[in-house]
Design brief:
alpha/beta, Spore Coat Polysaccharide Biosynthesis Protein SpsA, Chain A, eight-stranded mixed sheet, 8 strands, 51% helix
């Protein structure tokens, strides 16, 4: 059995070697525990690191031919880059894990037995975190919003970390979703998932390629492109605003008659017009969101190709 370990990197020169060593220890442990003939490929996909991450990765490759290094020609972000590497993986099972050691490579020793039992995916979800409490709270609200919008049914604190079967990877490849977020792809394609809790560690080395603004931008793009409930909810809100505007007409007339001196001239008319205008804007947004896939397809045909400036295979 071939295990593909997908490791996205950005400025991880101090952690990538330790991550590689931890991953290899887990492979060796699985070999002895399951008595399987396991081989692996350790695929590093780098998002234009500005430190010596690529140099360290090439040193690892010089010592172990199973290490492969893909260097992107630009920073494609935390969604497209790992997904592209997953599509290039050749393994019977594919592990997606960050290089910053916040996600424990040792969890592979629990993931693989689950897939051998017949599960499509074994995923890790954060039961606790040693990261910034504010970020922990914000991430939780984002996952909650995704559930409310009907985008996912899996554990809230799942970020893509997990082991996936070859059948599931091919299902991801065939899925024409606009934004290949694992939180959206997984429940759409997996028939059986086993979840494992872990403690999300604090980042000690390296730095993230994304700021709060960057993560917010990705979150909004993901919700707008993939939510099927958002157009419906926006349309409902537009209808509610229109009903409030129309229903307020007789109320305004009665209020005007009963308290003539309390109302400035034209205030009732302006309020009703504003409500109707807002409802029309919301209705227009609902139509746009409902037809977003068709609009994006014409303006920007979907492409999942991430270009590499260098490939060390």
């Amino acid at each position: 059995m071939l295990i593909s370990i997908i490791v996205p990197t950005f400025c991880e020169e101090h952690s990538i070697a330790m991550h590689y060593q931890s991953s290899i220890r887990s492979i060796e442990s699985l070999r002895s525990m399951l008595s399987l003939e396991l081989s692996y490929e350790y695929l590093i996909i780098d998002n234009c690191s500005t430190d010596k991450t690529v140099e360290v990765a090439l040193i690892l490759r010089s010592k172990d031919p199973a290490v492969k290094v893909l260097v992107n020609d630009q920073n494609y972000g935390p969604v497209a880059s790992p997904f592209d590497a997953m599509m290039k993986a050749k393994g019977d099972v594919v592990l997606l894990i960050a290089a910053d050691l916040q996600e424990p490579p040792e969890l592979l020793e629990q993931f693989l037995p689950a897939l051998l039992e017949g599960y499509d995916a074994a995923i890790g979800y954060k039961k606790a975190s040693r990261e910034n409490p504010a970020m922990w709270w914000l991430r939780g609200r984002y996952y909650w919003l995704m559930k409310c919008l009907g985008m996912t049914t899996i554990p809230e604190r799942y970020s893509g970390f997990g082991l996936y079967s070859r059948r599931l990877v091919e299902a991801f490849r065939a899925d024409l979703i606009s934004e290949p977020s694992m939180r959206v792809l997984l429940p759409r394609n997996a028939t059986s998932i086993q979840s494992f809790p872990y403690v999300h560690q604090q980042r000690h080395q390296g730095k993230s390629s994304y700021s709060v603004y960057g993560y917010s931008r990705e979150a909004i793009k993901n919700i707008v492109r993939n939510s099927r409930n958002l157009p419906h909810l926006t349309g409902k809100l537009a209808g509610l605003m229109a009903c409030i505007a129309i229903g307020s007409v007789p109320l305004m007339v009665m209020a005007k008659l009963l308290a003539w001196q309390s109302f400035a001239p034209g205030i009732a008319t302006v309020l009703i017009i504003v409500l109707l205008f807002v409802s029309l804007i919301l209705a227009f947004i609902a139509v746009i969101l409902d037809r977003l896939d068709q609009i994006l397809l014409r303006l920007d045909p979907p492409s999942r190709t991430v270009n590499q400036s260098a490939v060390y295979d």
